[in-house]
Amino acid sequence: MFGFSAFRGVQEQVVARVLAGQSTLAVMPTGAGKSLTYQLPAVMMAGTCVVVSPLIALMHDQLRSATANGIRAAALTSVDTDRGQTIDRFLSGDLDLLYVAPERASQPHFRELLTQGRVALFAIDEA
């Protein structure tokens, strides 16, 4: 699915910790493959991985890459026009990844939405 024959650096250890349900902090340089460390578990686990990222452009780049790799992904940002469809996909369990900005993630109505769907894990990207 991801087109790689092997893990790079600490990716395998991070993925193993995430899959084991352990809280994990992975500080990796740009280009080291941080995204794989939550994207791979997201497709392996039941539920949605909520990815909190501070930049809409970065979220949309990640979204394009994820969907190109066959990952069921969407974003809830101020510029996305398919908000209702994205919420429906989350609630029906049809998303592996849901990208949101910190501002949205901290809003009460978003936190309420999370209680109605199945969340597998949270990833904070580019903190």
Could you characterize the architecture of this molecule?
The protein is of the alpha/beta class. It has one domain (11-124): 3-Layer(aba) Sandwich (Rossmann fold). It is built from six helices and four strands. The chain has helices at 11-19, 34-44, 56-68, 83-91, 102-105, 108-116; strands at 48-52, 73-76, 97-100, 119-124. A four-stranded parallel sheet has the order 2-3-1-4, sandwiched between helices. Helix 4 links the parallel strand 2 (73-76) and strand 3. The longest helix is centred in the middle third of the chain and has 13 residues, at 56-68. The radius of gyration is 14 Å and the shape is globular. The relative contact order is 0.20. The mean pLDDT is 90.
Query: Could you list the spans in which at least 5 consecutive residues all have pLDDT below 50?
Result: none
Rg (CA only)? 14 Å
Q: What is the CATH level 1 assignment?
A: Alpha Beta
Task: Give the termini distance in whole angstroms.
Answer: 27 Å
Fourth-tier CATH superfamily name: P-loop containing nucleotide triphosphate hydrolases
Query: SSE order, as H and E?
Result: HHEHEHEHHE
> Shape from CA axes?
globular
From the 3D coordinates, which CATH architecture would you assign?
A: 3-Layer(aba) Sandwich
* Mean residue pLDDT: 90
Helix percentage range: 40-55%
Strand order of the largest sheet: 2-3-1-4
